[in-house]
Every structure is written in structure tokens, then in C-alpha cells.
Specification:
With 464 residues, the chain is an alpha/beta fold. It is built from 12 helices and 15 strands.
């Protein structure tokens, strides 16, 4: 988020007193927007910040986020033991690099890279960076091909749907690529192969396909788009790669739907990103990027440096990267294995289906996605109420639940939906509590709206 400058008036306006235990240790006000003039005791500094952070929401009740909010104590210990290590310094911390390489191999095999492909991959600080790096490689490959053909390099485009994460729009704007955004429809919230076909041409660097959209949790039809691009390659000689954004589904589908073809089993899928800090069950921030073949990663995009003690290649947007989450990912993989991940995923899917069924029984909502592929449930209101899902979201916040309500993208912007992300800590018991609070909040809003509509504007009391 972009922070803006806060204007500081007189000294009194720039200070605050902290309530609770902090006052026991502090004799003076503490400035908010300037360095304090002197030191304070560690205990005081801790308590001051601790007390203020109590205003944050409860991560366990945050049904808006895909991000992991709990790990086992052993993982927490490993994280603390490696928190001070800069991953990029392979000379000083060579074993973390070895662990990253192992995970890249594990992920490539999980995503069914063919035996004859010499894959390559990297960790990132999240899927946003992984998307940027993957698409940069596709842009460079497109440029090299155009140079060899003696063609213009000035009009690259990328095709993706209106159902994608904002990272895709950021890439297009930041790296000067024309975004050809395929709009969703009023009654369909993913793209189609036919829509993609209308937008691709010889200047298309890649097609973006989402496995688990941010808005509804649905899947773009990657198999159909792959078949269309194969046909296009055969008929017109255009070899357009697919980048699969599996930020949400990359640690779900291989365990829940292992026979579902979405990954490197499809010929045109050349790169995949996923988020370790989502259903990879690791705290933020960690992402993974895998290329089908190392030839997909142009040498021009690698930088070699030796000022950390040894010459090493880097392919990142950010030079510094913590080691602790890479280690935490390896802990999860070693600790859980295929059986463990599968068990956790199936429990989350079961709880998500249970939630969808209970929401539907309330008879207030229409279910848009009942956790069809990933443990995400989305729904909208039906009927004519004088309040909306934004009101319901605020009402639920009073009980501690953080549940987003938002409008769908262009062409369906009149539709407001609510999304619940089911994570490992959202048990069946919590589903019951949540649905009970949803019902109570909805009824309260109905009663309050009737009271307001029944008020006399002149006398200010309920009209019988």
C-alpha cells in the first residue's frame, strides 16, 4: 500500500498516550510521526507496540485471506532460527540454496514436468513476483523470436481474463505490454477458449490462465485453451505459451484432483506459479515459479554477482529474500508428505462443502461456487432487501469475522458477492458458529431496515 505524508501540526497533535500496561512504564507522551528524542526500555517498547496491534483483526477469524495464519511449533522454531539469513547470500548460507533446489524439483514433479524436459524454477516472495518473472521471460522469448524473424518489437500484448489478480495488470503497465483483457459475462465469471482466440495474434507473448480466481475461486478452462492454441499452432504457426496462475490451487489440485489436467501435461503450459504462503501452509511471503524447460528462461534475464563472496546467478525482482519461509516450506513437505497434504486438503474441502450447504439452507443467498475445485465458497443475496452484502460484512465484523463483500469485474459489476476462504483452522464447529452469526446478522439488518423505513420523518417514531 502507498503511504501518504501525514501533516504534523503542533507537538500535542503529534503525540499520543498509550492505554493499558504501557502507562506503567512510560512517563512521557510518545511522538507518532517523528523519531523519539530518547531511548526507552525494551519492555516498554514491546508493550507499546503490542497494545496497539491488539486493534488488528483476529487472524483465525479472517475468512478473507488465503494466507496461512498458523504453523506447527516446530516450524515456528525453524523460522526463528533462520529469520536472520538472507537467502540470496548462497556463499554464506549454501544449505538453504540446496533446500530451495530440492523444493523446485519437488514442485516440478508435482506439476508433472515430462521426463525429457530440463525444467528450472525459483522461489519468490509471493505469486505476484512469480507472475512478473514468468511473464518477463515470455516477453524476452517473444522478442528474441521476432528479432530472428526480422519483425517489429514494439507492440507486444498479453491476453488474460478480467477474473485475474491485479498482478497481471501491474505487469502489463510496469513492463510496457498491451493488456488484452477478456471480459467476463454476467452469468459466467471465467474466460473461454473462443474469447481467447479472438484476442491472440503474432504479438501475443503469452496467455494467462487462472486456477482459482480471486473473485469466485473458479478455474479458467485451461485444457480447452491449450487445445485451441495447439490448433492455432498447427494452422497458423503461432506458438503461444500459457502461463498458469495457480496461486490458490497449486497446493490443492495435485492432492484433491490429481487426474485433472491443468499443468505441464498440457503441451502449451510453459510456466506455472503458486503461493507457498497460501495452501502451501507457510506464512507470508513465499511463492514458486517453475518453467517447463530452462530454455524458457532467457540468459539475458539472469544477473551474475560476486560481491557476496562467490559468483552466483540471480533471477529476482528483489535482491534480498528471507530464508525462513523456504525452510518452513521444506519442513511442511518433509513433515506432511503426499498423504499429509492430501488429508489436510480433503478436510478443508469437506468443511467448505459443509459451509456451502449450510449457507444455501439459510434461503437468503444464491451459491455461485460451492467449493467446486478449491475450498472457497462464494454467494450473493437474492430477494429485494434494503441492505446489501457490504452491510452484512460490517455487521459480521462486530462478531470478529472478517469476510469480504465486493463487486465483480466489468460486465458483472452490478453483482455483489461474498467470499469465504476455508483454511485449515476453519473447522466444522467454526462453520456452525459462523453460519449462526450470518443468520443472526441478516435478521438484525432486516429488523433495523424495517424500523428505519417505518419512521415518520416529522415525528421521528415508528408508524403503526
Amino acid at each position: 500500500m502507498v503511504s501518504k505524508k501525514i501533516k504534523i501540526g503542533n507537538l500535542a497533535e503529534s503525540r499520543r498516550k498509550f492505554a493499558g500496561n504501557t502507562n506503567r512504564f512510560l512517563d512521557n507522551d510518545v511522538p507518532k510521526y517523528r523519531f523519539p528524542s530518547s531511548m526507552m526500555e525494551p519492555r516498554s517498547a514491546y508493550q507499546l507496540i503490542h497494545d496497539e496491534l491488539n486493534l488488528d483483526g483476529n487472524p483465525g477469524l479472517n475468512l478473507a485471506t488465503f494466507v496461512t495464519t498458523w504453523m506447527e511449533p516446530e516450524a515456528d522454531k525453524l523460522i526463528m532460527e533462520n529469520l536472520h539469513k538472507n537467502f540470496i547470500d548462497h556463499f554464506e548460507y549454501p544449505q538453504v540454496e540446496v533446500i530451495e533446489e530440492r523444493i523446485v524439483n519437488i514442485m516440478a514433479n508435482l506439476y508433472n514436468v515430462p521426463e525429457n524436459e530440463d525444467f528450472v524454477g525459483t522461489s519468490t516472495i509471493g505469486s505476484s513476483e512469480a507472475i512478473m518473472l514468468g511473464l518477463l521471460a515470455h516477453k524476452w522469448n517473444w522478442k528474441e523470436k521476432r528479432k530472428k524473424e526480422g519483425k517489429s518489437l514494439d507492440r507486444p500484448n498479453i491476453v488474460f481474463g478480467g477474473d485475474t489478480h491485479v498482478s497481471w495488470d501491474k505487469f502489463a503497465r510496469y513492463f510496457d505490454v498491451e493488456p488484452r483483457v477478456v471480459p467476463i459475462a454476467k452469468d459466467r465469471y471465467t474466460i473461454t477458449a473462443d474469447d481467447v482466440r479472438k484476442n491472440v495474434d503474432e504479438n501475443t507473448i503469452a496467455v494467462g490462465v487462472v486456477l482459482g480466481t480471486t473473485f469466485t475461486g473458479e478455474f479458467d478452462p485451461v485444457g480447452e485453451i491449450n487445445d485451441m492454441l495447439l490448433e492455432l499452432k498447427k494452422e497458423e504457426g503461432l506458438d503461444i505459451p500459457i502461463h498458469v496462475d495457480a496461486a490458490s490451487a497449486g497446493f490443492i489440485t495435485p492432492f484433491h484432483e490429481p487426474d485433472f489436467p491443468w499443468d505441464f501435461r498440457l503441451e502449451q503450459v510453459k510456466s506455472i506459479n503458486t503461493s507457498g504462503h497460501k495452501y502451501g501452509l507457510v506464512y507470508p511471503g513465499l511463492g514458486w515459479l517453475i518453467f517447463r524447460n530452462e530454455k524458457m528462461l532467457p540468459e539475458d534475464l539472469k544477473f551474475y554477482v560476486n560481491y557476496l563472496g562467490d559468483e552466483m546467478p540471480t533471477y529476482t525482482l528483489n535482491f534480498s529474500e528471507g530464508s525462513s519461509m523456504i525452510v518452513a516450506q521444506y519442513y511442511n513437505i518433509m513433515r506432511l508428505g503426499m498423504d499429509g497434504y492430501r488429508s489436510i486438503v480433503e478436510k478443508m474441502m469437506g468443511n467448505a462443502h459443509y459451509l456451502a450447504g449450510k449457507i444455501e439452507k439459510l434461503a437468503y443467498f444464491d451459491i455461485l461456487n460451492d467449493a467446486r475445485h478449491i475450498p472457497v465458497v462464494t454467494f450473493k443475496m437474492h430477494g429485494n432487501e434494503s441492505f446489501d452484502l457490504f452491510d452484512l460484512s460490517y455487521r459480521l465484523r462486530e462478531r470478529g469475522w472478517i469476510v469480504p463483500a465486493y463487486s465483480l469485474p466489468k460486465n458483472a459489476e452490478e453483482t455483489t458477492i461474498m467470499r469465504v476462504v476455508v483454511r485449515e483452522n476453519f473447522t466444522a464447529d467454526m462453520v456452525d458458529l459462523f453460519v449462526s452469526d450470518v443468520e443472526s446478522a441478516f435478521k438484525t439488518l432486516q429488523v433495523n431496515s424495517k424500523k428505519i423505513s417505518g419512521m415518520s420523518p416529522r415525528q421521528g417514531h415508528a408508524v403503526s
